[in-house]
Amino acid sequence: MDFQEPVLGDRISSVGDEGEKAVKVVDWAEFHDVFHELDGVAFKAKQLRAKKAALSEKLEAGQAALAARLPLCFIRLSQWGEAQFIMAHENGKKSYDENGAVKSLESRLERARLFIREQFEEIDPKLPVFLRKLKDVGATECWHKHGTFYEHLYHVYRNLKLWDAPDSVARCGLFHSAYSNSYVNLAIFPPDTGRGVVRDLIGAEAEELTHWFCIVPRQQLIFDMIMFKYSNEELLQHLKNLKEGKEIANPLMPPEGLVVKHIRTGENLLVPKNLIAIFFLLTMVDFADQYYGWQDDLFANRSGKFDYSGDQWTALWPGDGRPGLWVPLVSRMGVWLSILLHEEAAYREREETEGRGEALKKRPFADIQITVPSILDNCSVIVSSTDQIEALELYWQAFPMDADGKPKSAEIVEPLLRKAFQKNPYLAEPHIVLAQVLLGEGKYEEAEKEATEGLKLLLEWGTHWDKRMSWEGWISWVRVLLLNAKDRTWPRSVWGITSLGLV
């Protein structure tokens, strides 16, 4: 049927269910102009889509090459937003550990996500087998301070991996009390007949580390013989001198190590200095994961000095859930670890220079290299017990409801939290809780800053201080806060709060 173009102003009649309708005809020439204009826009959009696809291919293809050429730059393709080129920095400055490795917030989150998503094979191809074995021997059924023995072993492993420990040390952490040790009686493998099973499972070096960890009296070695031999000021000054190339000839610990008694046989054990450093790293992680307010009740640790002078064995588990006073202790361990590694490095250099390098390599565990964690300014700070006690008291005051059963106002809570992290700036949770308060007040930029700092500290520590929620739970929550702060929004109702979530 031939189509005849209607004349401008003609009416086209159509008959439908509702009777005849008259429709005004538009200007046909104008219609053609608009049609061709839209067609041109569609063609340009098609070109842009093709160009975008080509650029995306180039972006993916060039990512590895770009990372190799510009190690301080990486491409962020995540839930935080569109693809962006990000320089590895935090708070406007590049962030490095003592070994020169870039430690950006995004790269730390990507590493942590392997654990959060339980992508175990990507962490260690044998990790699923290790975890299965621990479950098979009953580790999930054993009580351990803050949960089960399995959870503690896994968390210690996670911490060590996030602190860049080599596989042998991390695997030792996963099995660190497998034969029982000087602190706990949890021998999930017989110490005499089970060593071959563990050796075949995690490797000879990791098993040998585990064996030593379970026969050395750590309380005597670390606390009685080392930890409190010098004041905080003496330790910090010695570390400063070591970093400046001084005090090399005056180590705080003899190069050969220390002698202790085997906890079961009583025989003398010479614990090499490099192994003592590994024990410090393991003990830092061990304490950080399991300690909270209940242990402070048990040992009457009101001073925060962990002198184990109290014996309040009737303290009810799990206590009131408040965080513990363990950070000063771990911070002192961290300074000692840094001192030991600096002294050991200076000793190795001198021995090799004087032609004794081959003999040095024959020492037990000589090939295992550990690094200083980035927590507490690369383990260069000792938090005072007084500051930690005050930080805890201020933080804990923020949570109880007021006399009318309502949440305390921001005017009350905000100063408490700010004072808390002024006393101890290395705790993530006061920053995170403050971020929520600031979001509720519409102070989005400040909330973003506090949430970012809280997330950074959680990822640096690899564990959490406030153990009422899991480490993964805290990370999930602070990411929700951070996303809302970036979007400049926050719910104003109960249902809005409870519906928050992020994938």
From TrEMBL:
Boundaries of every DUF6817 domain copy = 134-218
**Name used for this protein in its record:** DUF6817 domain-containing protein
